[in-house]
Design a protein that fits this description.
By secondary structure, the chain is of the alpha/beta class. The protein folds into three domains: 1-142, P-loop containing nucleotide triphosphate hydrolases (Rossmann fold, 3-Layer(aba) Sandwich); 143-181, no CATH class; 183-330, 3-Layer(aba) Sandwich (Rossmann fold), CATH 3.40.50.300. Helix content is 21%, strand content 24%.
């Protein structure tokens, strides 16, 4: 939960993500019970869609009737001018066009709520889940009870497939690519601090480092060595540099050029298990590295941008959101209107490259209605703007 100058009054996209049997559907059923019992749900102001692969009996969510379809066009054709909220269950099963449809719905000032299977049985992001994560304003991580007969872990976020049946497993009992299970005491975790620039995520991230200092736990901070936004010189790999916060504060960090550099450093300093990479969107290969090292018992705490200035997924961050054990979403304050800002507004858009390191003067925090993209392609799906 983020504190903001004004409440969230525009279209909002919420993703409920988790493995099989993690009660994603039950969370949506509870919401639907509330809107029906309170009298808010009327006619087509809330529409419920469900992919047929989401459940053996997809027609109902509790007592609530759903439109069962595997076609994105069916969702598009059913949305009415009166529709305020669209709920899509089993969203990661739909074709890729669902991401474009979701973008259009949110930009028409509507709320969208989806449930997604986070990872497939090979521990890769499932279907459209990364594309939807890239657009998410809020992420709710649902966890399951590990299905291993000797385990009672209620934080399972993996899914396994055995003889055509999917079961939830915790990190300890999940055999990543048939590797042997890791000891209980070495179970790794991934915590993400995400949001647009100027949203305070680095400040929250820094507080976790202070906790490590107080407990006397060794940790390391990693910085992409080409991040020189505050006039710092690009250093050599494995040299000590600094992460400079927007507030002017500085944090000592080891400079690396990619995820392989992080892995190399960690294997040379085996006493370190708490790892704080800054701006994870800049590190090539980070998803594969995190997935491997979680199996070796590392605890990652990373900051990053889910999407870039163009409102597209920023490298590996959306995939990491599917892998994460905890996600802290942060909003900034829109410089135009004071609404919660979810977007990064690049001031000079002559350079179209996704990676363009900058700070104040190069970027602004904007809400979706005040965000602009030069030469943005026309949206494939068009909806009448919803107004209260």
């Amino acid at each position: 939960m983020s504190l903001n100058a004004k409440p969230f009054v525009q279209g909002k996209f919420t993703v409920i993500s988790g493995p099989v049997q993690s009660e994603k559907t039950e969370k949506i059923e509870s919401f639907l019970d509330a809107v029906v019992d309170s009298g808010y749900k009327q006619d087509s102001n809330i529409l419920i869609f469900r992919h047929p692969m989401d459940d053996p009996n997809p027609e109902y969510i509790g007592r609530h009737k759903a439109i069962v379809t595997h076609k994105v066009e069916d969702i598009y054709n059913n949305v009415k001018p009166s529709t305020r909220t669209a709920i899509i269950l089993g969203a990661s099963h739909f074709p890729a066009d669902l991401v474009e449809l979701t973008n259009a719905l949110v930009r028409s000032n509507r709320d969208v709520i989806t449930s997604v299977l986070n990872l497939d049985s090979e521990c890769y992001p499932h279907g459209t889940a990364p594309g939807l994560m890239a657009l998410a304003d809020e992420v709710i991580l649902a966890k399951a009870i590990c299905s291993h007969p000797l385990c009672t872990n209620e934080e399972a976020n993996r899914s396994s497939s055995e003889q055509g049946k999917f079961l939830p497993l915790c990190t300890h009992h999940y055999h990543y690519h048939n590797a042997p299970p890791i000891p209980n005491q070495d179970v790794g975790t991934l915590e993400l601090f995400l949001g647009p620039m100027f949203s305070g995520k680095s400040t929250a991230w820094r507080r976790e480092q202070i906790k490590m200092q107080r407990k006397g736990v060794p940790y390391v901070v990693f910085k992409w060595k080409e991040d020189v936004r505050y006039g710092e010189k690009e250093g050599k790999e494995f040299e000590e540099g600094q992460v400079t916060l927007h507030s002017g504060g500085k944090i000592s960090a080891i400079m690396v050029k990619d995820a392989f550099g992080m892995e190399t450093y960690l294997h040379q300093h085996k006493e370190i298990r708490e790892v704080f990479p800054d701006e994870i969107q800049f590190f090539p290969g980070v998803f594969g590295m995190f997935a491997r090292l979680l199996g070796e018992g590392y605890h990652f705490h990373g900051t990053g941008l889910p999407r870039g200035y163009n409102r597209q997924g920023f490298n590996d961050v959306p995939k990491l959101m599917c892998l994460a054990d905890k996600i802290n979403m942060h909003y900034a304050i829109c410089v135009k209107c004071g609404d919660p800002a979810t977007e990064n507004q690049r001031i000079n858009q002559a350079d179209k490259s996704l990676v363009k390191v900058g700070g104040a003067g190069d970027y602004e925090a904007r809400c979706l209605k005040d965000w602009t993209l030069d030469g943005e392609p026309e949206l494939k799906y068009k909806f009448e703007k919803f107004g209260w």
